[in-house]
Specification:
Chain A: Pfam families: PNTB_4TM. Chain A: It catalyses: NAD(+) + NADPH + H(+)(in) = NADH + NADP(+) + H(+)(out). The complex is a heterodimer. In chain A, 76% of the residues lie in helices and 0% in strands. Chain A is an all-alpha fold. In chain A, helix 2 runs antiparallel to helix 4 and helix 3 runs antiparallel to helix 4. The termini of chain A are far apart. Chain B has a six-stranded parallel sheet. In chain B, helix 1 runs parallel beside helix 9, helix 11 crosses helix 17 and helix 13 runs parallel beside helix 17. Chain B is elongated.
């Protein structure tokens, strides 16, 4: 990639519009699962935690990095599982009755 | 970074966009979530496969521990406790982002471009705010502490001073990056997060969770910039933008502004009522009387609220509704957008009790129906049918769209006591001559009601 901040700023600004656009038609029924799913997505900070921890040497830094990895994993994995549990209930109700 | 790696990261970013798109439609939501999970797993796998990382076994162990904790929490949590679970997951995410930024800070010095340091400092502070703020929201919703606004005299001053100190220290840190400054900024962020959420009342806490969720998204985006990682940048920005938008949507569903939710309690003294039982006369009845009322009605609308879910009475309610439908009563559930503790929460709770989707009618659709309705049965709800939202400008819920239950011929409130709802204000509808109160625990009373209808 490039070191020019403008490129990154461009990606940022475009992503803001995409982020608003993709959820603009959500019904209030889905607000809770959507919030929970979005919450899980930012758990991908795990990727950042892995990169930082895997390229550092000092013991303290590794320890801090490992804590970050544990926390980020809770966020990412727990977030997707709990969202799926919620959404499962929305789909299941079509089958019986 | 090889082209392959870059393209994989791009693929993950697209995956997150599709995931959010999917999550916003009822039919595609589950697939969307799975796409998001797939993209996240792929993104995390990339550095393990492409970089020459140290401490791999330790990191894998940490991932295993965190994942196990997350899965256990996600599986065990009751659907009623969903808002605080989301808060907790969000908080640890914010904490992780702050720690990652602190680790980045140790590689920075006066020669590092100011933009990079600013993004890092931003992540440290806002990630910490998100962490401690989420912990407080968790404590409020889990009722580990009072869910009422906590205000003490010096709070606004303290918050202002904290904010000022943070800005000054942040500027100093950007000029001459030092890890110690970063640690201090993290601590300040923790304090600010607590001060930010303390004055927010229980009913508004979900909005704050949504806002903190957006905050965490932005910190992840900033972290992505610092690490020059497009997946993190896009994922974080998407969550930041959609989370902010979702927060505004939720606030408008409650007829409030976000600023009013955050700072309302500080500005106007306490916006909440006394929260005590009133001793004005009301009309109450027993389950047998209400059973007759319901069984011989033609049109009945159920207004479920959080009290229903707390009593775990969704299943009993569904049985009652099924029984009444069999007797020929036309019966539906009226779902207020903020019924429960989060927008859409009630839909999740009733779906769990296997209530058919077609019986859940949203507010705009059903409000015209109340005029032609014989009996409205309000189970564990209060604020969403409180006419004060239309009539009393001083009420904290003034302006919130409500279910027009007061237009029905008869209203039956099932309540545990005369205590006001989550917003802490009295409900005039309770004292209306057309209103009957049925006191007791929702599950127990619904059971009695069910028995009484069967006996008819």
């Amino acid at each position: 990639m490039t070191d020019d901040p403008i490129v990154w700023l461009t990606i940022f600004v475009l992503s803001v519009f995409v982020g608003i656009e993709v959820i603009s038609k959500v019904s209030s029924t889905l607000h809770t699962p959507l919030m929970s799913g979005a919450n899980a997505i930012h758990g991908v900070i795990l990727l950042g935690a892995v990169i930082v921890t895997g390229t550092t040497d000092s013991t303290i830094a590794v320890a801090v990095g490992l804590v970050a990895i544990v926390l980020a994993s809770v966020n990412m994995v727990g977030g997707f599982v709990v969202t799926d549990r919620m959404l499962q209930m929305f789909t299941r109700k079509r089958a019986p009755k | 970074m090889s082209r392959g790696t870059e393209l994989t990261y791009l693929l993950c970013a697209v995956g997150f966009i599709l995931a959010l798109k999917g999550l916003s439609g009822p039919r595609t939501a589950r697939v969307g979530n799975l796409v998001g999970a797939g993209a996240a797993v792929l993104a995390v796998a990339v550095p393990f496969l492409t970089l020459d990382l140290d401490h791999v076994p330790l990191m894998l162990a940490a991932i295993a521990i965190g994942s196990a904790g997350g899965v256990v929490g996600a599986q065990r949590v009751q659907m009623t406790q969903m808002p605080q679970m989301v808060a907790l997951f969000n908080g640890v995410g914010g904490g992780a982002a702050a720690l990652v930024a602190l680790l980045e800070l140790q590689h920075m010095d006066a020669a590092t471009p100011w933009f990079d340091v600013t993004a890092t400092v931003f992540t440290v502070v806002v990630g910490s705010v998100s962490f401690s703020g989420s912990v407080v929201t968790f404590a409020k919703l889990q009722e580990l502490m009072t869910s009422r606004p906590v205000i003490f005299p010096g709070l606004p001053v303290l918050f202002g001073l904290g904010l000022l100190t943070t800005v000054v220290l942040a500027v100093a840190c950007v000029r001459d990056p030092a890890v110690l400054d970063g640690v201090l900024l993290a601590l300040l962020g923790l304090v600010l997060g607590v001060l930010l959420v303390l004055p927010v009342g229980g009913a508004d806490v979900p909005i704050v969770i949504s806002l903190l969720n957006a905050f965490t998204g932005l910190t992840v985006a900033a972290g992505g910039y610092v690490l020059a990682n497009v997946t993190l940048l896009v994922a974080g920005t998407l969550v930041g933008a959609s989370g902010t938008y979702l927060t505004l949507l939720m606030a408008s569903a409650m007829g409030r502004s976000v600023a009013n939710i955050l700072f309302g309690a500080l500005r106007g003294g306490s916006t909440l009522g006394a929260g005590e039982a009133s001793d004005r006369p009301v009309r109450s009845a027993g389950p047998e009387d209400v059973a007759i009322l319901l069984a011989y009605a033609q049109r009945v609308i159920i207004v479920p609220g959080y009290g229903l879910a707390v009593a775990q009475a969704q299943h009993t309610l569904r049985e009652l509704v099924d029984l009444l439908s069999e007797r020929g009563v036309t019966i539906d559930y009226a779902i207020h957008p903020v019924a429960g503790r989060m927008p859409g929460h009630m839909n999740v709770l009733l779906a769990e009790a296997q209530v058919p989707y077609e019986q859940l009618i949203e507010m705009e659709e059903i409000n015209g129906e109340f005029k032609h309705t014989d009996v409205v049965l309000v189970v564990g709800a209060n604020d969403v049918v409180n006419p004060a939202a239309r009539t009393t400008p001083s009420a904290p819920i003034y302006g919130m769209p409500i279910l027009d239950a007061d237009q029905a011929r008869q209203v039956v409130f099932m309540k545990r006591s005369m205590r006001p709802g989550f917003a802490g204000i009295e409900n005039e509808l309770l004292f209306d001559p057309r209103t009957t109160l049925l006191f007791g625990d929702a599950k127990e009373t619904l059971g009695k009601l069910l028995g009484a209808v069967k006996a008819l």
